[in-house]
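CHAIN AND CONFORMATION:

***
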Amino acid sequence: MTRPLTRPLTPRTLKTGALTAATAAVAVALTSCSSGTTTGPQLAFTDEAAATAVVDDPTAASVAASEAAFTRAEAVFLSPPEQSEELAEASAEARMPLLLTGDDDALREELDRLGTETVIVAQDAPAPAAAGEREVIEVDPEARADAMGLPDLDADDDDAPAVAMIDPGEHHPAAAAVAATVRAAGGEVVEVPGGDPRVSGDSVAAAERSPDTSVVAVGASFGSTDQLEERMSLAASTTAELPGGGQLAFPGRRMVALYGSPGTAALGALGEQDVDAAIQRASELAEQYEPHSEEPVIPAFEIIATIASSEPGPDGDYTSEIDPEQLRPWVEAAQDEGVYVVLDLQPGQVDFLTQAQRYEDLLKEPNVGLALDPEWRLQEGQRHMEQIGSVDAAEINEVSGWLAELTARNHLPQKTLILHQFSTAMITDRESIDTSHEELAITLHADGHGTPQLKTETWDVLRQDLPEGIWMAWKNFYDEDTPVFTPEQTYDVDPRPWFVSYQ
């Protein structure tokens, strides 16, 4: 049972009915002058933005949140990190910070800065050494805040300009405490899956406001403080968001795409109908995946923009390039309906960069990414269908460097760069692929077809020694798969694919 509050009387809590209002005011003023007690609210919030901080140590993270949100707190919750979730809700409701034990020196310094007189702990919790001679109140952590017998303190009227960024996938031991402290001061808590503030519309909005707020990010996924500040700056300067919100292709969304070329049914499902019907079909496909995904599922097109040809053609390069302006109506219609577009290249004897540059104007659209299909990349003297084509990492890196620069120069959201593969020989020196470009989500598209066993074996082989920072994609074939995976079966693949296409 929570023991009754025996909080010492201070000039701000002393009330005597025999005093007139004027006499009481004089008494308080005199006592305050003699005792050195600070006037103002007993829970005072910051009113100016401080520097951004990325913090991993639990105690340091809780202190950073307190510094960002509070200038004074005469009562403070204190907890070991592993028990902090039990007190987080009460801390936020009572508008008091929640600090975490671990570094006693840091805690003492913060309690002194806050002018803390009372420390609140869970029943049976170890006595906090950092509390010193302060009053310690034990409370039932399962009780509501208004039933805990907490000090009745005056709080600031204005909220603190504080923001807590939390990566929900990291399950950081300080996440609950940091969020509670910022909420207690009227600040904002933003979930940032993966630790990149470009991931969602909410986190982008928080990044845009960051010059006027104190941002505390919890955990290693955010990288260094410099890295977080750079990403927030990118978020603020980017002119558009992707379908579904945010500026990162993944992990803020998954995509389900129709693959093919407009007006050519033989090349895939996308070409079996006009653009309006294709949008409806892709949207219906994406909806089938929604129940099986924690992330929003966005419809997409993967449009074959350059088509492998059995004949050399007028340029002698065994590829037929669709005029970019013929594809623009598809890109614009998709943009209007929240559909992402990937332009797929089958280059024949042309290098991938040369073909990609032909579609530069379309790639300047915020909802357009790029796919490279090495199966159709020929060397001089080779012909399609006589062997499987291939590309080396150096050529891929030329494309990624150009595409990243194009994206940055035009202040565009992150673009997908999809690499198709079903055989290890299709991409040589794969370990040398440059995955460092913040502007790109490089994605390996496993194109295996046939029985579930064959598709899974291809998937597993392609994932071996995959460079860090590459996302995985899956393809379902309407005609070649026996049977075609259902949406549930597709998302049961481990790891769950971020991009799924239908051919």
Summary: Residues 1-36 have pLDDT under 50 and may be disordered. The first strand starts at residue 43 and ends at 45.
